[in-house]
């Protein structure tokens, strides 16, 4: 029963009591108990609502602490590489690109040998991507230059360079990196 309903009943009941009802005291006590019960029920609802609000507040606080922009450690260039991972794996032949990156000191000769020992072009590209995702932003720039050296890969280089990266992308990659311990 709402407060407005209770107030209306009390006003009507008061009129009945004043008009000479024989059991005035009993009727009044019954009404008072009804109001007290209604108020207790309302208080319990409010307390329950406050508990729910506190739980939600705690959850929001924990989530916002996890999502602070200043906590992101994934550079944009790595997000661009990851967002284009499938395109890179499927489209390039890594030999000339690896050689170019070795001459620029982005990769070592040992890195080149590891990549070259992979059986398929796709495996070589995956290994190359693994190395690129662990390199610096300068290494990323040299990778784009290496792609542009070959007219066949210029469009791919533009696609990678112009890939839009949102805070959601960064957050997703950051979360994945936390679970795989890669930074």
Automatic annotation (TrEMBL):
PROSITE patterns: CARD
SUPFAM superfamilies: DEATH domain
Annotated CARD domain residues: 81-149
Record GO terms (molecular function): death domain binding; protease binding
Gene3D superfamilies: Death Domain, Fas
A GO biological process held by the record: regulation of apoptotic process
Annotated InterPro entries: CARD, CRADD, DEATH-like_dom_sf
Protein's name according to its UniProt entry: CARD domain-containing protein
Species name: Mytilus edulis (Blue mussel)
């Amino acid at each position: 029963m709402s407060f407005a309903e209770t107030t209306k009943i009390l006003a009507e009941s008061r009129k009945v009591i004043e008009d000479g009802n024989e059991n005035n005291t009993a009727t009044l006590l019954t009404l008072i108990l009804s109001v007290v019960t209604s108020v207790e029920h309302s208080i319990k609802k409010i307390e329950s609502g406050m508990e729910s609000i506190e739980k939600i507040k705690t959850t929001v606080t924990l989530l916002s602490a996890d999502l602070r922009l200043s906590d992101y450690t994934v550079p944009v260039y790595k997000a661009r590489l990851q967002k284009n991972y499938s395109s890179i794996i499927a489209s390039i032949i890594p030999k000339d690109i690896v050689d170019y990156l070795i001459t620029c000191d982005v990769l070592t000769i040992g890195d080149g040998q590891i990549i070259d020992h992979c059986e398929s072009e796709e495996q070589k590209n995956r290994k190359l991507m693994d190395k690129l995702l662990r390199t610096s932003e300068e290494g990323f720039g040299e990778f784009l230059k290496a792609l542009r050296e070959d007219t066949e890969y210029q469009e791919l280089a533009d696609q990678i360079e112009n890939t839009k990266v949102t805070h959601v992308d960064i957050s997703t990659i950051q979360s994945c990196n936390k679970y795989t311990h890669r930074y």
